[in-house]
Amino acid sequence: MRQVGGVTAASDGAAAAFTAAVASLRSGQEQVRAVRPELSFEDVPAPRTLAPFAAAFAATARVGQAEAATGRFVLLFDPDGQRGWAGPLRVIIYIRADLEPEIAADPMLGEVAWSWLTEALDARTSGYAAPSGTVTRVVTEGFGAKREEPQTTGFELRASWSPVGVMGLVAGPADPPPDGDGPGEQAGLDGHLAAWCGAICAAAGLPPLVAGVTALRPPARRRGT
Question: What does the H/E/C string look like for the chain?
Fold first, then answer.
């Protein structure tokens, strides 16, 4: 097994298909950047032990000059599938953002954060299965040399799901996009990346990519001008 350009490859035939899928994700990044310049992306090392094929990307959302939210997107591909997956693909995502203390303490925070992701997936993709995830409230305190740093509060969202109806890597036809001017469902992995980006934007307090998703108010110290 070898890793080339962030993609872990086990066989040339399947690797070619997976490399094309990763290329579609990079194209999706360009599409997102065109409408959301606050987001920046970079390739990061992919996990080597979770699946025969893996690729990973990180994203940062900025409000003004301040970092408002960060995230990671991992695509796994195992032609034979794995236990708990609904098909040969699995997406794993991570999102972290600081929030005002009163918002972080809201008992509905978990439900709201999870809805950012599921509503974006419903709007942007041709389908997904076996979703799983957690929302964790985070309180950060400084000690020793960092004792004078202010306490921060925030949350972390970790989730995974199996893309459904993705052309090229998943058996079965993808759903056609609906009529209308909106982006609609996408029959590729770029829609899943766009859904992740929409959740990052909501976490950062930016206007969401998906209509109807409510963004939380970020801490005042992170707001840009």
Answer: CEEECCEEECCHHHHHHHHHHHHHHHHHHHHHHHHCCCEEEEEECCCCCCCCEEEEEEEEEEECCEEEEEEEEEEEECCCCCCCCCCCEEEEEEEEEEECHHHHCCCCHHHHHHHHHHHHHHHHECCEEEEEEEEEEEEECCCHHHCCCCCEEEEEEEEEEEECCCCCCCCCCCCCCCCCCCCCCECCCHHHHHHHHHHHHHHHCCCCCCCCCCCCCCCHHHCCC
| Dihedral angle sign, alpha carbons of residues 60, 89, 113, 100 | negative
Interatomic CA distance for residues 152 and 148, integer angstroms: 12
pLDDT of residue 137: 85
Residues 8 and 6: their CA atoms lie apart, in Å, by 7
Which residues of the chain carry a pLDDT beneath 50? Answer: 1-10, 171-187, 212-213, 216-225
